[in-house]
Every structure is written in structure tokens, then in C-alpha cells.
């Protein structure tokens, strides 16, 4: 926080308390990886990078993050690291021998899966390095860089239709479910637990595997089958039939997003009303009982009675948590994780954990398609979970011709700055051309293509430095 305060002071901002600022990098394959690299480069050049407390990523953005965090002091030498990374990505050839060697070791793991193969052949093919360090190694380093948070999704919980409790995050200190509050130490992330007690320690997987996991969109059979089916329909079905099917699918998705609610939403009094647990006891009843016990504890002077009340409160807390935790978290022997972009293609869920107290979000969106989908989904997501989030209203004109800077804010919510990668400013009006050039599924970029993307994505920071500083100043008031 000292470094953040100094950065703000250097920019003429002297707040009474230092605001927590998070940068979000969305998914989008190599486009997201290189796009985030360009944004980070310009944040450094604009003397804004040190104001960032959290750096959160989904899918392709995590490839950029992992590459930067290979250096313990990367935030102090971004330009040289950027140049070295571009050189590695464009001039180094991936080695089949190294890939097979890594896979030979990976196959010895009990939970060897297609994610290992994906990491060894596809992700390695993009990032051109097998990083055998572990995420937990970063917790022992000096806090000179923004704190990294990688995100994934629990596939099983997601398939049940729960798009809130399935949010999973991985940081140097802990991994677990963002909304339900179930975490374990990162170094024990692949170990076996029973009733919260470590039963069998298993070694943590390395950063290549983590990048493969975070970018494993094709690991979801339902999603890939749906994608293939949509592709077939575009070729063979009549336009009218296709529109009808798409409308039906959209209505289904809208219905699903309105369902649910997390532990935090009910604890704060939001979400579904009058919803009762299967045993007939509502969550509100359990919360009321616990509050009554706490009040009794405050009034009790006898230490033996206080001890009994304390045990009762602990038991009530355990009951409430178990009632709100997804059944899979408590009962499944294994956790099946996949690309978080399959639910929300930007790491809002991790950044908005209440205990992180983020005041300003700088969201760089590298998604394909609708340039505002992530922020509108985030708003709906927060509505379901009871997390404060500003209203998001996008005009049809902006959807067709996006600008390079949007601010969403209201009283008692974080301020959200949303920046679409390709917009009418940095693309000089030709958004479609740039979007077509940088499709999600394409071969690795050559140096010229990569340099162009770094330049264009960097313009989104360079052109908006003063506006970013103004929003930082506003949250400091």
C-alpha cells in the first residue's frame, strides 16, 4: 500500500485513505494475452501501474499475467520484459521434446487429464515456455507488484445452473470459491480434505498447468457441443428457424441468470425471498438464532456459560455455512475446474469479494462479440449476489460503435471503468476490420501482428490517462 500511496502522490493525489484499485483482464485467447500486455505497458509508461493493488485475469489474460510474474520485480521494468516476451513468443519455437518430457511427469499425477494435454500442446504452443514454478511461490516475495488473482469455474456446479457459487479463484495464498467463502492454502490446493481437515498432502501443480486450466474453454463438453451445433446451424438452417432457436436460447439464458443467490446475498438480505431450506428452516431463521446467541453472550458474565454460548455460536455458524455451501463442495471427492470465461469472461467475481474492498475497477475487455457483455453480466451477477454494483445502461449506438472509455458509478458502489479493446477511437472507426484480423481462434501472431495489437490496446490507456486519474481522484474524496 505504501507503493500505491506514493504513486497517487506522484500524480497529485493525496487521499486520506488509499483506495483499493483492481485491473481486470478478460478472456480472449492470444488476443487477450497480448492486449493485456499492451495495457500494462502503457499503465507503466503513464505512471499508473503502481496505483493498482489487484491484477485479476480470466483465460488468455492469465497467460500474460503468468509470463510477467516470472520476474519477481516485473512492475519496475515492464518495457524490457514486454520486449523480451514478444521476442520469446515470436522467435522461439516450442519443443516437442520438452512438451513430452513435461507430459511424462504429468501422467504420474493421480488426476492426469486432458487439461494436461491442452497445457502441454496448445498453451505451451502460444506462450513458448514451460514454467515449473508454483503459484504459492509468489507469497514469499516482496509485495512490489500488484497482487495476482487467477480465476476458474467449477464445472459441476455450473452445469447445475448455479452461475454464482461456481466462481473459483487462485492466488498465491489461497484457492477456493469466491462467493461461498470456502478456501484452502494454495500449496495444498490439490490435497485431500475431510470435514476441513487435511488428510493427504499432494504436491501443487506448476504454472504451465495453471495456465492450461485457466484457458481450458474446450474442456466443457456441453459448451463445445453447443458451439459446434451453432456452427452447423449457421451453415444449414434457414435464417428464420435460426432466429427462432436463438431467441429461445436467449430466453432460457435470461431465466437461468435470474435464479439463485449466494451465501453472501442471503446473509445481507438480498436474493430470493421466502426461500426455505429442504429441512424447513429458512436461512433467516438460522441467522436470527445466531444473533440472539451473540446478544446472550454479550450479556453473560459467567465464564462457563459464556463458553457454552460460544460453542453454540460456532455450531450455528457451521450449520449456516453447510446449509449455504453447494452440496458438491462438501461431498464431491474431486473438484472439476475449467475456463471461467464460460460463465463470465472477466474476473469481476474475484475482484468484488467484499473483504477486498475494491473502490475502483479498471476493466480491459478483450472479448469477441458484444463489447459490453461482461459488464452487463457482472451487473446481473452482483444483483443476484447482493454485491453493490453501479447500474449499467448501454445505448444501441454504443453497442454498434463503442467508444474507448465508459464509467459506471453510483452511491455506495465501486466505480467501474470499462474499456473495449477495439473501439471507434483506437481503430479509427473501423472496428470490424480489427475484430476480423484478431479472431479468437487463429494461429499464433507474428511480430508485426503482435506489435500492432500492443500499440492499439495501449492507446486505450494513453488516450485516457487524465480520465483514469479523475476517477481515482473521485474515489479518494
TrEMBL record:
Keywords (A to Z) from UniProt: Hydrolase, Lipid degradation, Lipid metabolism
Top-level taxon of origin: Eukaryota
Cellular component per GO, a single term: nuclear envelope
Molecular functions (GO terms): calcium ion binding; calcium-dependent phospholipase A2 activity; calcium-dependent phospholipid binding
One biological process term in Gene Ontology: glycerophospholipid catabolic process
Lipid metabolism as UniProt keyword: yes
UniProt cross-references to Pfam families, sorted A to Z: PLA2_B
InterPro entries: Acyl_Trfase/lysoPLipase, LysoPLipase_cat_dom
UniProt domain PLA2c: residue ranges: 1-477
Protein's name in the database: PLA2c domain-containing protein
Amino acid at each position: 500500500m505504501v507503493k500505491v500511496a506514493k504513486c497517487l502522490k506522484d500524480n497529485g493525489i493525496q487521499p486520506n485513505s488509499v483506495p483499493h484499485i483492481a485491473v481486470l483482464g478478460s478472456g480472449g485467447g492470444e488476443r487477450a494475452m497480448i492486449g493485456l500486455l499492451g495495457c500494462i505497458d502503457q499503465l507503466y509508461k503513464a505512471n499508473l501501474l503502481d496505483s493498482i493493488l489487484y491484477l485479476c485475469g480470466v483465460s488468455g489474460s492469465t497467460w500474460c499475467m503468468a509470463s510477467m510474474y516470472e520476474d519477481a520485480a516485473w512492475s519496475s521494468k515492464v518495457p524490457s520484459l514486454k520486449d523480451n516476451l514478444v521476442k520469446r513468443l515470436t522467435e522461439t519455437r516450442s519443443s516437442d521434446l520438452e512438451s513430452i518430457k513435461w507430459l511424462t511427469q504429468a501422467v504420474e499425477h493421480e488426476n492426469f487429464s486432458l487439461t494436461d494435454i491442452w497445457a502441454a500442446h496448445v498453451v505451451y504452443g502460444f506462450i513458448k515456455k514451460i514454467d515449473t514454478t508454483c503459484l504459492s511461490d509468489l507469497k514469499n516475495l516482496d509485495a512490489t507488484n500488484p497482487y495476482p488473482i487467477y480465476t476458474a469455474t467449477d464445472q459441476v456446479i455450473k452445469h447445475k445452473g448455479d452461475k454464482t457459487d461456481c466462481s473459483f479463484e487462485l492466488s498465491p495464498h489461497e484457492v477456493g470459491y469466491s462467493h461461498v467463502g470456502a478456501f484452502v492454502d494454495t500449496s495444498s490446493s490439490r490435497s485431500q480434505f475431510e470435514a476441513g481437515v487435511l488428510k493427504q498432502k499432494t504436491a501443487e501443480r506448476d504454472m504451465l498447468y495453471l495456465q492450461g486450466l485457466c484457458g481450458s474453454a474446450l474442456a466443457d463438453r456441453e459448451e463445445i457441443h453447443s458451439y459446434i451445433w451453432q456452427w452447423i446451424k449457421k451453415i444449414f438452417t434457414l435464417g428464420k428457424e435460426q432466429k427462432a432457436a436463438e431467441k429461445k436460447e436467449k430466453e432460457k439464458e435470461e431465466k437461468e441468470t435470474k435464479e439463485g443467490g449466494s451465501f453472501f446475498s442471503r446473509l445481507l438480505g438480498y436474493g430470493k425471498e421466502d426461500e426455505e431450506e429442504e429441512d424447513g428452516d429458512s436461512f433467516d431463521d438460522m441467522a436470527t438464532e445466531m444473533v440472539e446467541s451473540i446478544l446472550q453472550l454479550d450479556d453473560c458474565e459467567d465464564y462457563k456459560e459464556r463458553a457454552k454460548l460460544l460453542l453454540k455460536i460456532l455450531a450455528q455458524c457451521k450449520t449456516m455455512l453447510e446449509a449455504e455451501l453447494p452440496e458438491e463442495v462438501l461431498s464431491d471427492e474431486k473438484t472439476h475446474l475449467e475456463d471461467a470465461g464460460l460463465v463470465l469472461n472477466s474476473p469481476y467475481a474475484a475482484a468484488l469479494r467484499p473483504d477486498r474492498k475494491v473502490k475502483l475497477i479498471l476493466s480491459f475487455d478483450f472479448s469477441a462479440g458484444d463489447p459490453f457483455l461482461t459488464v452487463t453480466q457482472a451487473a446481473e451477477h452482483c444483483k443476484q449476489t447482493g454485491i453493490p454494483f453501479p447500474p449499467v445502461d448501454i445505448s444501441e449506438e454504443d453497442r454498434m460503435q463503442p467508444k474507448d472509455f465508459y464509467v459506471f458509478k453510483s452511491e455506495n458502489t465501486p466505480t467501474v471503468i470499462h474499456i473495449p479493446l477495439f473501439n471507434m477511437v483506437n481503430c479509427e472507426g473501423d472496428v470490424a476490420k480489427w475484430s476480423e484480423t484478431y479472431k479468437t481462434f487463429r494461429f499464433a501472431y507474428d511480430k508485426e501482428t503482435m506489435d500492432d495489437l500492443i500499440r492499439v490496446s495501449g492507446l486505450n490507456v494513453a488516450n485516457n490517462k487524465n480520465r483514469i486519474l479523475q476517477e481515482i481522484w473521485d474515489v479518494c474524496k
